[in-house]
Design a protein that fits this description.
By secondary structure, the protein is mainly alpha-helical. The chain has 10 helices and no strands. The longest helix is centred in the middle third of the chain and has 51 residues. It is globular. 30% of the residues are buried.
């Protein structure tokens, strides 16, 4: 069922354009990270700990971007999208798993960054973990997947348990149960399971990010003090530390914005009349998988160099094609 003319108002068209831009950026950025690391693995049959984490993170964000953008498009183009109970159940189940995977892998990346700078005095107690970093990463990713699976199964269990209670109480209660009540219960359980399931990765991410930001800030301040007292002292790593600090701060901000936006979007979905809040929340949520992946590409020398080569080859191909066409027309 196609939406009425009201759904194709200027604000709805603008919303769809934003969703299309987010979809394109997210699919290209995350697909590029996954594709490049898979090619590297096929050549060397090995991936570093960092590459394993960002490949898992990019893969989860690739599907998360597809899911969020598809939701944005379907909710505007098809009026009965949220009215189909089975479609809503399937969507919520898939979204809980992929969303939890994205949050958990992001927490793994933050912990990895934190352990990597274990040589700093603030993180001296993390030294043994740093030595076993390569062995711990696969187990960390596997535990994250199991955690996401348990969260998704828990939601399905509570949903089915609630339905069994209603069906065993009385047939009149089940008969009088409207679609709006069913949808409201689905959203409430999704909000509950998602909130409880996200507490552990959220705490892990916030703690490791704050420790890392404090350590980088102290290290940068110490290097600047040395350069002030000793004019000939110039540490080339200062700029690298500044870039790392900026990247970590942006990661921290984007992660928390996404968490708040998804919380608001789930909370507002129970009141489908509040369309503006849902549109803003889902648009902000869909920006996270693409924006931070682009930041990862810019901040990683290998990914940045590969992307620059692709863009250079594409610009060279376009210029060569235009030159060939010009010669053809001239002849």
């Amino acid at each position: 069922i196609i939406n009425d003319e009201k759904s194709f108002a200027p604000e709805a068209i603008f919303y769809l354009i934003i969703s299309a831009i987010e979809l394109s950026a997210g699919v290209v950025a995350n697909g590029f990270i996954v594709g490049l690391n898979c090619i590297g693995w096929a050549k060397s049959r090995a991936l570093s700990s960092y590459e394993k984490i960002i490949t898992s993170l990019a893969l989860s964000r690739f599907f998360l971007q597809l899911l969020l953008s598809s939701d944005n498009f379907l909710s505007k183009i098809y009026a009965g999208f949220y009215g189909m109970i089975q479609a809503l159940v399937s969507y919520v189940l898939i979204w809980i798993f992929i969303n939890q995977a994205s949050l958990c892998f992001a927490s793994c990346l933050s912990v990895f960054y934190c352990v990597k700078i274990a040589n700093q005095s603030l993180f001296s107690w993390l030294g043994p973990l740093k030595l076993r970093n390569a062995k711990l990463v696969p187990w960390l990713l596997l535990c994250s997947m199991l955690y996401c699976l348990v969260t998704t199964v828990s939601y399905n269990f509570f949903r089915y348990f609630n339905w069994m209670i209603l069906s065993h109480n009385s047939t009149d209660t089940l008969r009088n149960l409207t679609k709006s009540h069913i949808k409201e219960s689905l959203i409430q359980y999704a909000f509950l399971i998602r909130s409880l399931g996200s507490i552990f990765p959220l705490i892990l991410f916030v703690a490791s990010s704050i420790l890392l930001i404090i350590s980088l800030w102290r290290h940068i301040r110490k290097m600047k003090l040395n350069s002030d007292f000793i004019p000939s002292f110039r540490n080339p790593s200062t700029e690298a530390c500044m870039h790392a600090l900026e990247s970590m701060v942006s990661f921290f901000i984007l992660y928390n914005i996404y968490y708040v936006a998804t919380t608001c979007s789930i909370g507002n979905m129970s009141d489908f009349s509040d369309e503006w809040k849902i549109m803003v929340s889902t648009a902000v949520s869909a920006a996270y998988p693409s924006v931070h992946s682009i930041i990862l590409i810019i901040g990683n020398p290998k990914l940045k160099l590969a992307s620059a080569r692709i863009l250079h080859l594409r610009s060279y191909y376009v210029a060569d094609t235009k030159t060939s066409k010009h010669r053809c027309f001239k002849s």
